[in-house]
Amino acid sequence: MRVCVITDNVFLYRHFLEIVRSDVYRGDRFDFFCSAGNRAFSEACGSDAVKPVHLKGENGDFFGRYDLFISLHCRQMFPERLVKEHRCINIHPGFNPYNRGWYPQVFSILNGLPAGATIHEMDCELDHGPVIFQEQVVIEEADTSKDVYKKIQELELRMLRDHLPALLRGDYRLRHTEEGNRNRKEDFAALCRLDLDQRGTFGEFMRMLRAVTFEGYDNAFFYDQDGGKIYVEIRLRKEKTVRGGGIKG
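and the corresponding structure tokens:
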């Protein structure tokens, strides 16, 4: 089987590559692509290993080379022609149908809806289509967005190790879900702009700051009196219990 994998996630690409190099998949060919213009990904992974592609600009000749298309945190929407004429599978970092769209873990922290990973067949809507496999992760009170995302990525890799043979063969049952909710990139941007006059409980503000804190990224901010941005993040550390009944910080 010839498989087209399109990914914009360096971590998942490197670990998925280890999976498909197993002898189990010796008879299968996996070609890897990233979104055209994703320079950071290309520099991290090497242009020889992963080729850039702009799916909307491709034609039937490209699509016809493959038996299966896998979106592994791909930033592009798959064209209608592709998903209607070929089997396309999405590895989605959310527990469908909840918080479909951008940054599912952010909104799961905020609204308390389930978080996890979903492998589903794609249709023409965003993160939509019948579910093949899915599992949840637990969000703890000390988890930030990055903590939850890390849990989800580890879950996605385990699910791929467990289920990739069935995905390649098409040996699975599809399950349709309710419509659920969807979040846009604009919703996340609005969440990051803090209103210092907003009223609410301390618990609500804690959830909001946990949701937008992702170490290495400047997300939440407010403006100072000179119009400059002041970035905000939260650092949480759970107290650890040690043997003997004592408490260690």
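(Above: one complete record from the training split.) The helical segments are 10-20, 39-45, 60-63, 80-85, 104-111, 145-169, 185-192, 202-212.
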